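Running this now, will post back.
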Amino acid sequence: MSLNKNFFVENIKTILFALIIAIFIRSLFFQPFYIPSSSMEPNLLVGDRLFVSKYTYGYSKHSFPFSPKIFDNRIFYNEPNRGDVIVFKTPADNRTDYIKRLIGLPGDVIQFIDGDLYLNDNQILKTKINSNAKIYCGNLKINPRFFQEKLPNGVIYNSVYDIYNTYQQSDKFVVPEDHFFFLGDNRDCSKDSRYLTSVGYVHKDNLVGKARIIFFSTNRKNGSIFEFWNWNKIIRIDRFFKIIK
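Update: finished.
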């Protein structure tokens, strides 16, 4: 074998081994995700890049690229905690990745009354936060009200919505066995489990993993990452290595 041919073969082997290792890590341990929408503002912003732990809830076919039918059910399953921020495959097509906050566990009853969130007939405790900050809803900047909500297990997070325009009244959502109910933190700008035909209840097998940490973030509305002369406006250094709560 000539030197040039040997060099070519060795490089192909190196690339293949690197790909196998990357797929192994991505499937079993951590996978990077990009936030493309404003449905989780103010906690997750468009342009955030984050790591999701794949092992937290065990594994299903959706843990692997292209969702191969390796096994039918979830293995090494651990039930998520209420309040976890989770990536899942939307039930509408079992292909699109969504990221939302887990509110309802199997058997829970969720309802909206006068814009307030109720869980098992108890109103979720909320405290108004004084803020003049604006957030995005698509390409629009809005000025909603900011609240701090506290779930029964003690998880505290910020949510935003206009109490006069949000999901005001609803029937009771009864979460089926082995399913979960998710909400976006940006309540007026989130397609989530409230909309049964597009998202609805999410089966445990559709869970991909738990959002853990933001490792990089850019504000694409201020320009392209390739415009290095604008990096001070584009790169959000203050969001690097931020733990997701």
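The chain has one domain: 3-108+172-243. More later if anyone needs it.
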